[in-house]
Amino acid sequence: MVGKMIGSSASPNGSFTSAMTLTEEELTCVPKRYILPPSLRPNGAEYNTCLPIVDLSYLQHPLLRPQIIQEVHLACKKFGFFQVVNHGIPISVMKDAIDAASEFFNLPTEEKRHLLSSNVHDPVRYGTSLNHVKDKVYFWRDFLKHYANPTSTWLDFWPSNPTDYKKKMGNYTVAAQKLQEELMEVIFESLELNSNYLHEDIAEGSQVMAVNCYPACPEPDLTLGLPPHTDYGMLTIILQNHLGLQIMDRDEKWHSVPLIEGALIVQLGDQMEVLSNGRYKSVLHRATVNSEKKRISIASLHSLALGKKVRPASELVNEQHILSYKEGSFSDFLDFISGEDIVEAKYIDKLKINS
């Protein structure tokens, strides 16, 4: 089984084994290729601190808005993370997106193989682990990634099978982009910037949908769905159907993110850390797996346009907060991960000028 996974899927004759395929084979143990070093395995030591939940409906009340801005400020500063409720995206739209994703991953491998790619620059790609051609150790995850904003530009590249994938995922994608624009105004306000700061750049920015499938795993204590990492962008909006996401707090303790009906998860990325000149930090997170359920998560990753450089806001650089980051772009990040192992190196560390 391990030998089947070593070949490159980039060539027509290369072999490819997805995590879904391994689950269908009803293995009783994970192949050696997936067993992480003890230091990287989930050790079960989780903390159940009350993680922040923000009710966005209060933003419409002038007297309550300052309270919500303060809640977001504290959540960003302490965790780089919060969950939102009453965010305006109907539960039916979210459920349709999860269903479309699940149907895609349930397709036979032959139906998905034409989307296989290990090139991180491709606008649509299907794969397993992080990069099934380069990874030294595999992660228990299959994924589909595709560009999304504006949807009209990218929709034709998305999977045509399942037949309703484009419609269902498209509806959610457009709603997530709109929500992201609203959230960015709130976050900028929490940094005491103008709420319309970079408004056009945000609206015209990059949106990548990372659609993830974490099948049930026979030995979840030996592997992960994704290793600890930060996202590259301004922020990420995550929809999940089961528990599995964990975040690390500033004290380096892992917290399992609870599943709240109708809620969406908001995480800050590297670009926000740079723009805020370190006032807010990108959140370190990972995906665990379980032995009973297949987990679907849909991460809507938002950054400025591919080549647009992000630098610290001039308003947030002063004698007390000296310039602490070099500028960087989404394109620079892609070049970085093409040659680096994200388990061993972090893009944000390349941009830091001062600790």
From TrEMBL:
GO cellular component: a single term: nucleus
UniProt-annotated location(s): Cytoplasm; Nucleus
GO terms for MF: 2-oxoglutarate-dependent dioxygenase activity; L-ascorbic acid binding; metal ion binding
Signal sequence annotation: none
Keyword Disulfide bond in record: no
Entry keyword annotation includes Oxidoreductase: yes
InterPro entries: DIOX_N (IPR026992), IPNS-like_FE2OG_OXY (IPR044861), IPNS-like_sf (IPR027443), Oxoglu/Fe-dep_dioxygenase_dom (IPR005123), Plant_2OG-oxidoreductases (IPR050295)
Function: Involved in the regulation of shoot development and salicylic acid (SA) homeostasis.
Protein name: Fe2OG dioxygenase domain-containing protein
Lineage: Eukaryota, Viridiplantae, Streptophyta, Embryophyta, Tracheophyta
